What does this fold into?
Amino acid sequence: MADLIALKDFLVLCQSRSFSRAAEHCHVSVSGLSRRIQGLEQWIGAPLFNRHKTALELTDAGCRLQAVASEVVYALEGLRKSVRADSQELQRRIRFCAPHIMSAVFFPDWIPRLHGDFKDASLSVESHNLPECLARLDEGEADYVAALFDARGAVATRLGVGPDINGYLGLALGTERLVPVCAPNAAGQPLFELGRNGTPASFLDYASECHLGWSLQAALQDFGLPLQRQHAASLANGLHFMAASGLGVAWLPHTLVREDLAARRLVRAGGPELDIPLHLTLLRRPMPLANQAQRLWDYLEELSGEPQSRDGVAPALVE
It folds into this structure.
């Protein structure tokens, strides 16, 4: 069978029509080049060059091989470059999958901070609800899942991830909290004040698929507040708009509403005792990662100073 090197040398010889010039170009001896051409001739079963004339001339078989070899070498070289480029891109990429809220409260600040230390990395963020994110992680379509886990363990329990299931490694990257907010009245006071006179407050809830709602529902059972569920949305941005429109109280990530609170476009509907603490957590599978993705994990683990957790939540989430 003809090999790629022999075909490439053959094409050089077709162009130069000189064994000595072709051998120099191919960085091989004249005798070595001659043996490769002879090997091709034995493989194809016919002479490729007419050697009895002053200048080398291609035979009919040589002309036919030249046409095919040109296409084959071009295609194979293109394939090799493409595969190498894909492999290099694979080693560069760091793929995150996260619930939509993380694009508002986490990645806008975090990605620019990472860029200085990971300039050679190719970062991407894909948004889904949390169960779909974990499915993407399990299928190898993501390197990491970033999400908000509550200290009560409601999110981990809902996902079926706990100390008895060693499916993921986790690192705590920071903290967040859900704060009860609503629009102010003309006097700048809350339109809805939680727990006031036992009057049920208009409540803006998360849809059942939103993992922030899982944390909220667990906390509300402890708070025992009189609430009247008015509206719901699957995204925190939807509840943000409803709250600002005066439709009720919503528990929203502080990072999402801090500018509104500072500008008094929104006000707190209850005290800090009604805040719900959350932890920004990064999850991964315990199998090897590509170069830059693994380098990120090692970097974050060193910064955190915490061992990897195998129970799906970072050590800081375990009471």
